[in-house]
Amino acid sequence: MKMGCLNGTTISLSCLKLPFPSYPSSFQNVPFRRTIKPLSAALQTSPATSPSTTKAEDQGARSHWKAAIDFKWIKDNKEAVAANIRNRNSDVDLELVLQLYDHFFNLQKEVERVRGERNAVANKMKGKMEQFERQRLIEEGALGTQLPLLCLLGKNLKEGLIALEEDLLKLNDKLQLEAQRIPNMTHPHVPIGGEDSSMTRKLVGSAPEFSFPVKDHLELGKELCLFDFDTAAEVSGSKFYYLKNDAVLLEMALVNWTLSEVMKRGFTPLTTPELVRSSIVEKCGFQPRGNNTQVYSIEDSDQCLIGTAEIPVGGLHMDSILAETLLPLKYVAFSHCFRTEAGAAGSATRGLYRVHQFSKVEMFIFCRPEDSEHYHEELIKIEEDMFSSLGLHFKILDMASEDLGAPAYRKFDVEAWMPGLERFGEISSASNCTDYQSRRLGIRYRPLEAPVASPKKSKSNLAPPKFVHTLNATACAVPRMIICLLENYQQEDGSILIPEPLRPFMGGRSVISRKS
């Protein structure tokens, strides 16, 4: 059934009510002022944001990019997608997405029909005809008796088509804003539920035993003059810090040791931009979530501070088609990371455990779809080998569905024993995002195998491109690793033993001791 006709009766397009969003005005680039604040706050203060806008509109109204979402697959697998949304505790309105898709599909067919009729009239106008016949066609426009059409808003087919195309663009924007919030599908082995439902996959090593009272990293750091939180709070605010003396050398040692270990496994080293466009943050699946966003934005610009090198590395091959022979592409990237840590409070998050700025080494892989589970296992094995070589006691968790975040198909977390905190604390994670990010970033590869020959002649024998799979894993989050090393290697005299793998990167030193 065409949208312009109901039971053979012509209806007016103006009677068709479709839900279109209101859009905030574009952010102006003001060169003399750069105030940092959470991205959600920047959206909330946009003067054109209507109180009636939906959550999706408020979160993504600045985005004009389009994700290559397979709407037909979503529609054909509606029940599985709906169950996945429930399992992830997401508030996405799947029914609205499918309704918008149906509207879009029908309106798109109507646009194509009207465009064809406009072209037919244009072709007649190009041919030889009597003057009175040409004038009649001009006057008929969209109301010609030869070509029955909808009662369009304009006086001719060209104006009507323009109006239809504008409606189609608006509807596509609305559809994208809602559909981009649908989370990735979930691996069948992922536990269903919240964080408490996560399953321990492996327990490695054993906790150290102490014959003296154990100190936490804050007390150790104060006695050894390793950090200064008080001055940093005056200079920058809470949850900032200065590293001092041997703590600086320890950070450099951790970073350089990590890079050297990961590079041995075929990874290419990178340093990355630490400011990226907000659209890149969104394409990687880090949608701001109201007041609890973890993203800092730069006011009056479209840029954000990165919370992880995953974001700029993910954008490295954006909008490109890679040769299959290049895959897998493996990168190890060093960057500083910035997070608002909204909602984080309590003694369990004090000190270096949860801070606004920190150094991190991140692993990232682009690969063929059939290889992503293999490389996910490779990433977690690299993490296990590295943390084992440092003598840490840790467990590897298969994270539950509600703790995956939107992009991850499956995620493993590593939690290490922190004696001063008297608990395990997260030090790393490894995620397989399948094609969730690549469909948004436009990253594809060209298979080597040509398509099967068909009876129809083809202009090209090239295989159609496919979306790559992306994976990421933390090789070293420096503050958490410093906590582990200080608390696990503390000695009765207050000194800290340096694990053997790090000693060459600490100038051969084996201990951090008190300064006179």
In the CATH hierarchy, the third-tier topology of the largest domain is known as BirA Bifunctional Protein, domain 2
Uncertain stretches: 1-63, 142-155
The radius of gyration over CA amounts to: 29 Å
| Overall geometric form | elongated
Overall pLDDT confidence: 83
Give me the oligomer status.
single chain
Describe the 3D structure.
With 516 residues, the chain is of the alpha+beta class. It has two domains: 71-181, Serine-tRNA synthetase, tRNA binding domain (Helix Hairpins, Orthogonal Bundle), CATH 1.10.287.40; 195-449 and 462-512, Bira Bifunctional Protein, Domain 2 (BirA Bifunctional Protein, domain 2), CATH 3.30.930. The chain is 33% helix and 19% strand. The protein contains 15 helices and 21 strands. The strands form seven sheets. It has an eight-stranded mixed beta sheet. A three-stranded mixed beta sheet has the order 11-17-18. Strand 1 (5-6) and strand 2 form a beta hairpin. Helix 10 (246-263) crosses helix 15 (478-488). The N and C termini lie far apart (86 Å). The model is unreliable at 1-63 and 142-155 (pLDDT under 50). GO terms for molecular function: ATP binding; serine-tRNA ligase activity. Keywords: Aminoacyl-tRNA synthetase, ATP-binding, Ligase, Nucleotide-binding, Protein biosynthesis. L-serine binds at residues 308, 339, 362, 472. This is serine--tRNA ligase. The record marks 474 as: Important for serine binding.
